[in-house]
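Lecture notes, structural biology module. Today: joint structure prediction for complexes of two components.
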Amino acid sequence: MRALFTAALALATTITLLFLALPVAALFLRVSPGDLVSSLGSSVARDAMVVSLKTNLIAEALIVVIGTPAAYLLARRRFRGRALVLTLVELPLVLPPAVGGIALFAAFGRTGLVGDELNALGFSIPFTQAAVVFAVTFVAAPFYVRPAVAAFESLDQSVLDAARTLGAGPGRVFGRVALPLATGALGTAAAVAFARGLGEFGATIMFAGSLQGVTQTLPLAIYAEFAREPDGFQLALALGALLVVISFAILLSVKLVPSWTRYALTLPFRSATSS
Amino acid sequence: MTGSLAAAKLTVFAAASLTGVFPQIDKAPRYNFAGSDQLAFQITQAAPADVFAAASPKYPDQLYAKGLVYKPRVFATNELVLIVPRANEARIRSVYDLRRKGLRIVIGAKGVPVGDYTRKALAALRLTSVLKNVVSEETDVKTVVAKVALGEADAGFVYRTDALAEQRDLLQLALPARARPKIAYELAVVKATKHLQAANAFVARVLGARGRQALRAAGFGLP
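The predicted structure, tokenised, for the full assembly:
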């Protein structure tokens, strides 16, 4: 009976791993290393890498700089409608990205909700690199903010109280106590949000369009190239392989790096409170 | 009864610009509307298509050369037009206005039939500088139409039939005659079909009186 159970678990694990890993492995088997390098040297590939990197770094900076204090407030304050606000923050996690694209048009498009105001200020968002940043931020932000709220919620209240008792103002408690304590979790969340942002497709292609060197990110380049004769499929495979490597590295680093940062950062506080 | 049952299983891969008219000709098949280049690619990857209808002879002819489809036949013609949002805030009166700096033009990507026709037309007019105002290259004609109809883009190049289908939100401007590329639609039965009879019946229907009438009503030309 126990052997049967173990065998069933092993079977389920094998099926899961095969199903998830086989397509990824196949991607690499279809591109020879030589093709990979020469494809990635093409102008489409290089432009897409630059656009992806630039827009995602800006989006990530916005998400972390604005999202962190927002998450701190949402975590530490109890107010009416808090559940509603948290649900709003989560919504882009489950929305089809195409809905995100339409919603961005409805809000920030020329004919959108604040389109006239933006026009008056001389801004026109759709089809620009700013539009890519908007799309990436909209889709990736919840991947940072939601875990960040959870991280700040799980801080030991007595530690924060102790800091207040010792005379630290609320800003100092946030900057010198809460933030260092949550660094590991925030780092993980930021990395996951970045990985999600790199893969953003649906909202971007609608709201920002697709133009090489301007708005065409790596996923958009894959979509634009895969059906193009004669060698678009090769290029799409190469770009796909590149995205897999980057995403894998990010997700793996999340598992390896924070384990020691969190330990190093939390240890003194934990020993202080438990003694 | 058996005829409609067989037809119900039929899968037709058709160019996005046929989205409106094909279901009018025959509402029984399952349709997959997308850019002709993407559909052709899917067929080379053994997608379960019975009939392939494209907005250009290029892809059916390629598949025919590869032995993947039976001989393609021309069933309709179309015309490339310039569209602007009905409000036309950019005050575009002709294709020559598109050279103005700062305009936002949306066109089909290279390799997508409508995108290739657009580049051909601009080259014929010696207006390739217009391409500098292109803000997005779309993967099928319908998304070009949508972005102009929304008023988010100032202009785009699409087929006359797509402009007609959205005329509530769009104005269409004709191109000079010498810049109008010859646009022929071809369809072919996919060799791997398991419904050869129904597929042939569908092709006959498109080429027949009913098909011609619907195509003409939608603004297509007839071969």
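Point to remember: Chain B touches chain A at residues 35, 37-38, 40-41, 62, 104, 106, 109-111, 134-139, 147, 150-153 (CB under 8 Å).
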